[in-house]
Design goal:
- Helices cover 53% and strands 8% of the residues.
- The protein is an alpha+beta fold and 206 residues long.
- The protein has a four-stranded mixed β-sheet with strand order 2-1-3-4, covered by helices on one side.
- Helix 1 (11-22) links the parallel strand 1 (2-5) and strand 2 (27-30).
Length: 206
């Protein structure tokens, strides 16, 4: 039995929910973190000592770290092209998962918290502007890649598209000015057409 712990409005939790939904898996979701609490209580900390979400329970197996959970689910329940069997094809897709963590996550957190979770009169507009400028530079890399292939994962949708796909939804939903990027926008529209993306990712920003 699969159990996914975490609140649905977390981008990291969305990765896991979207992946599981794409794979057609049956799972139970338990809201945790943020307003739902639980993550600092002993029962949860015994499963994840970091006190963060998401957390996956697959029967007796416990796993945390969102990208690792996506890899695990894809490897256990998925098949090509979602989870490529060719090592080089899979590595080329997976690099985008780690790239997001090392480049996008920090400035995006500044932008999202500043625009969504901070009252307008308390916003640090300089920090928000700096975060947008940094993200614009990173998205130039994505635009260049998507000019050469339809998905970050390659010729077909796969695990490499999931992490950034969760972050790109609020990027296009937030009331900010964005540099036109036709290939990034085309990729985003392809994601929006996926029922699992609509269910797991395209929810109100909170």
């Amino acid at each position: 039995m699969l159990t996914i712990w975490g609140r649905a409005n977390s981008n990291n939790v969305k990765k896991v929910l979207w992946c599981a939904t794409e794979l057609g898996l049956h799972y139970t979701q338990i809201n945790a973190g943020g307003a739902y609490g639980q993550v600092n209580e002993q029962p949860y900390r015994s499963l994840n000592p970091n006190g963060l979400v998401p957390l996956l329970q697959d029967d007796d197996f416990v796993l945390w770290e969102s990208n690792t959970i996506v890899r695990y689910l894809a490897a256990k329940y998925g098949q090509a092209p979602f989870y490529p069997q060719d090592l080089q094809t899979r590595a080329a897709a997976e690099k985008w998962m780690d790239w997001l963590t090392s480049t996008i996550a920090a400035p995006f957190r500044t932008l999202f918290w500043g625009m969504v979770r901070t009252p307008a009169e308390q916003r640090d507009h300089a920090a928000i502007a700096a975060a947008i400028a940094e993200l614009e530079q990173h998205f130039d890399v994505v635009e260049h890649t998507l000019a050469q292939q339809p998905y970050l994962s390659g010729e077909a949708f796969g695990i490499g598209d999931i992490p950034l796909g969760c972050f790109i939804y609020p990027w296009f939903e937030l009331p900010i000015q964005r540099k036109p990027r036709p290939h990034l926008e085309r990729w985003y529209q392809q994601l929006c057409a996926r029922p699992a993306y609509q269910t797991a990712v395209m929810i109100p920003l909170t």
